[in-house]
From TrEMBL:
Record family assignment: Belongs to the argonaute family.
Highest taxon listed in the record's lineage: Eukaryota
Organismal lineage: Eukaryota, Metazoa, Ecdysozoa, Nematoda, Chromadorea
Gene3D superfamilies: 3.40.50.2300, paz domain, Ribonuclease H-like superfamily/Ribonuclease H
Protein name, per record: Piwi domain-containing protein
MF terms (GO), sorted A to Z: RNA binding
Length: 646
């Protein structure tokens, strides 16, 4: 981009930041381009937009994120404009109501804390995870206060922990009584700890308050808080549009003397792609409904799998009473429904070679899967109580350890099938089984035969996804700690004989590195080599589809990653293979809504969601990159979210 464009972008960034900077009583600025509203109701936000997640603990703050982006603008192709993108943002914050002890009571719940403030010893570890890295203000009885960074929570209490005071050993409770003539109300409550000047200091929780404007980490949210946050964030498009308009109002953009002449409303023209036809076995096919994106599964899978020998095991909860009665009769009913559905769709399967009930013990489950492997089973099915949550990862680990396919089903779903004959549920389970066992449920046929030929004839697709470890907490970051968990790179490719048969693998890499130079080359060589072995020829085209890359990294990818991929193709004797790299971004902040007149014409004026299959490739797209927005799905609830693909 030219120097002039950068200057314009910087001006817009500064001009739109003036109101938040000059109104600290209305905006709290945290990070570049992001501010949070102190009184969101001033700008037509309602309490449901930012609810309290838990009393005395956390709330959902309403914020605004703005960024400057280069777009084509209303003039269309070959035009470069600078646009401002405004997004309503919601982030969990720590509540400042009450004391640290009040927050502790909210975290552990009424069953783990008593009236005297004492906490079950088993809850201390959870409190450490919740409170570590939190900034609190210690209020001393003499009116003095100081801010400290918590390092954790101690099992010791003010009544039991002894400190050295001028050569005398006294309890924390006695220390406050002597020095401040302060009688602690909760001497049996655990003490908060802070590592300061090479030593650990201890503070009574009842004297600590939470410093304002602290974001809560995802690891500090419990299941109820996450559910409440999702509910408040997953709003229908009419509400989302209102919230974005309120955010624009809160930034004073429409009234700003700098920007009065700058606002241009853009109506980008979209087009809908024709839906594909779904092909099944026995030459049957199903049409996709263009508005809902749904289709009906036909009788036979495109390529049904064969299960030669398998076993099924029930794992009930040890002490929890099950919601459903699921004994031997119900187990037999489920097996019968499962086998019938498999056979109906062309799979070859007989009754299970083994059927037992296992205790929810990790060692027993591991041993059981090992025995199945020794007895030449190629598939193991588990029906696990909903209350047993510690075995799923173990089962998946044993799948890798013993190289045997497993499937784990919640008991509640199995009971619905056995007792109520839920055909759609059992079909979903069988579809998953068929894919796991190497079958293909269906393929697709595109309306444009020319494009369809490009998909089938000599094209290798490699899809790449990167998952980074969770962010470090404030306490770890303050001490320069490095992540001890690697990043995981998963990939899938149609490198087997059939062009719609995708298989994959995963690799580990250095944590939080988005540049994958050598890793991409290794994956390319692996997939191209297997493609050649399966089909007897090198691919004519390679389409590499990946995520985990921001726009700022495109230049680096062009300079380093793509040449490494081309080198890998040369080493596989596929130098003539054409290369296309598609980058999918889901973290962009552009929100597109259907025009209200279009919604009225379809009889759904309250639903501004864009229909599935809609493509937008002008005006809001990048002026230099080949870019388009695509809505791949139909939103069941809330607002549909378009991927931007470059």
């Amino acid at each position: 981009m030219s120097k002039q464009n950068h200057s314009l972008a910087q001006f817009i960034e500064l001009a739109t930041s003036q109101h938040p900077l000059q109104t600290p009583n209305e905006h709290v600025i945290l990070g570049g381009g992001t501010s949070y509203l102190i009184t969101p109701d001033m700008y037509d936000f309602v309490p449901e937009d930012g609810p309290e997640l838990s009393a005395h603990n956390k709330y959902l703050a309403i914020g605004i994120h703005k960024s400057v982006r280069y777009v084509e603008g209303p003039a269309g192709r070959n035009s470069k404009k600078v646009g401002l993108v405004v997004e309503s943002k919601k982030t969990p914050f720590h509540n400042t109501d009450g004391t640290l002890l009040d927050k502790t009571a909210s975290i552990v719940g009424p069953n783990a804390i008593r009236d005297d403030g004492s906490v079950d010893r088993g809850a201390i570890a959870y409190l450490n995870q919740q409170l570590k890295g939190l900034h609190v203000i210690v209020h001393y009885p003499n009116g003095r206060s100081r801010e400290v960074l918590l390092s954790g929570v101690s099992q010791a209490t003010a009544a039991t922990h002894v400190i050295d005071v001028q050569g005398e050993r006294v309890s924390v409770q006695e220390y406050f009584k002597r020095k401040y003539t302060q009688k602690l109300s909760y001497p049996d409550a655990p003490l908060a700890t802070a590592f300061e000047k090479g030593q650990t200091n201890y503070y009574p929780m009842e004297l600590c308050s939470i410093r304002d404007n602290q974001r809560a980490q995802l690891s500090q949210l419990n299941a109820r808080e996450v559910a409440a946050m999702i509910k408040a964030s997953a709003v229908p498009p009419t509400n989302l549009k209102r919230q974005i308009e309120s955010s624009v109002h809160a930034l004073n953009l429409k009234e700003s003397e700098y920007l009065k002449e700058a606002g241009i409303q853009i109506f980008a023209k979209g087009r809908r792609l024709p839906p594909p036809t779904i092909l099944f076995g026995r030459e049957s096919e199903s049409m996709v409904d263009k508005d809902s994106g749904k289709w009906h599964v036909r009788d036979a899978f495109y390529l049904p799998a064969t299960i030669e020998k398998w076993a099924i095991y029930l794992i009930p909860a040890a002490r929890t009473r099950e919601k459903y009665r699921f004994g031997e009769n119900e187990m037999n009913d489920f097996i019968r429904a499962y086998i019938n559905c498999c056979k109906q769709h062309g799979m070859i399967i007989n009754g299970p070679a083994d059927k037992q009930m296992l205790q929810p013990n990790p060692d027993d489950v591991d041993k059981c899967i090992g025995i199945c492997k020794d007895n030449n089973c190629d598939f193991v099915f588990f029906v696990t109580s909903d209350a047993v949550t510690n075995l799923h990862n173990l089962i998946k680990g044993c799948e890798r350890k013993y190289e045997i396919v497993t499937q784990d089903l919640k008991l509640s779903n199995a009971a619905e099938i056995a007792m109520r004959g839920k055909q759609e549920t059992v079909l979903n389970i069988v579809c998953k089984t068929n894919e796991k066992m190497g079958g293909i449920n269906y393929t697709i046929k595109l309306a444009d035969q020319g494009i369809h030929n490009l998909i089938e004839d000599g094209t290798l697709f490699i899809g790449l996804g990167i998952s980074h470890p969770g962010a470090l907490g404030n306490y770890e970051r303050a001490r320069g700690a490095a992540p001890n968990v690697p990043s995981v790179i998963g990939y899938a490719a149609n490198m087997k004989k059939h062009s719609f048969d995708f298989v994959g693998d995963y690799l580990f890499d250095e944590a939080r590195r988005d540049e994958k130079y050598t890793t991409l080359a290794h994956i390319t060589k692996t997939c191209v080599t297997r493609y050649q072995n399966s089909r007897g020829d090198a691919p004519k085209r390679l389409i590499l589809f990946r995520n985990g890359m921001s726009e700022g990294q495109f230049a680096t990818a062009k300079q380093y990653e793509i040449p490494m991929v081309r080198l890998a193709l040369q080493e596989c004797s596929a130098s003539s293979c054409k290369l296309t790299v598609l980058v999918s971004q889901k973290t962009h902040n552009i929100r597109l809504f259907a025009h209200e007149e279009l919604s009225k014409s379809t009889g759904s004026s309250k639903n501004l969601n864009i229909k599935p299959g809609t493509v937008v490739d002008e005006q809001v797209t990048h002026p230099e990159h080949s870019e388009f927005y695509l809505n791949c799905h139909s939103a069941i609830q809330a607002s549909s979210f378009l991927q931007v693909i470059t």
